[in-house]
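Morning run. Coffee first, then this:
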Amino acid sequence: YRLHTPAEFKQRNRVSAGQVFRAVVLQQIIQTCFGLVLGHFFGTGDVYGKEEYDIAVWTVRIRRAQQAVPAILSVLGIDTKTLGQQLEGHSPSLSLILRGYHSGMMISHAPFSAWEIWMAKAIFWVLDPAARFGIAIFFSDSWQYFWHRAMHANQWMYRKDFFRFTPSPLLECSSTARSQTESLFPLFLTDFGGYFPIGNIHAHHHRIYVPYAFGAFYNTLTEAFILDTIGTTLSLMLSGLSTRQIIWFSTISVMKGVDDHCGYRMPWDPLQWLGEQNTAFHDVHHQSWGIKVS
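And here it is:
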């Protein structure tokens, strides 16, 4: 199921696995610190212990929604009281709603029925999370797609370097001074050829022609900040996911990114059943002849 041979892995990639690993670790450390800062200033809600309360809140909302049904149907020209009387023998609960039984009453005066509690549980456990996940996926995927497309369509964005520093003294100093500097700054100066790893917004990622799992997050800090940090933060804020849901969303997103770059097309991989945008599809994008294709 391997898409490339081990020989291609060694010969075609323009960056070693060790360099990629260290760059990815640096990026993850920065993003983790950013997440801790957000959590400190904006806080996080409880991930368990208040489910019954939240279900009760949805039950009250359902009861309030019922109070508005007669008025809404009346605007449409429907005689709700007559219709409610006709349905009394078939559906007592619906009959009460149409006749405005709950209108003008305090929420707590009438006991909640089994179907109201069941509906509240369905909303809390299924419908509400599904809607929030849908919003997060739509925004995050759109953000990633259009930024990624722009970075390939616009050569200025593909090659432009916002934060690139001048070549390090390593390239010109004596061997003794070079070894001393390498011992102090091995990650930045040695692994990145005298440059900090934040230049070339997207071209940096395409130094990998034979993708592998953790190479999925081999990006410049500029690209990582724009696509991952900002994009994910905005998608989570707009969707209003809880802390527990954020963990699930982030885990699945990382798994999908890793799977797209893993270099294996496995028939039992559920992430590759989601559509044609799988490992083989993205592998074409990393080839010199397919970089503008998929």
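Confidence is low (pLDDT under 50) at residues 161-174, 177-199. Good start to the day.
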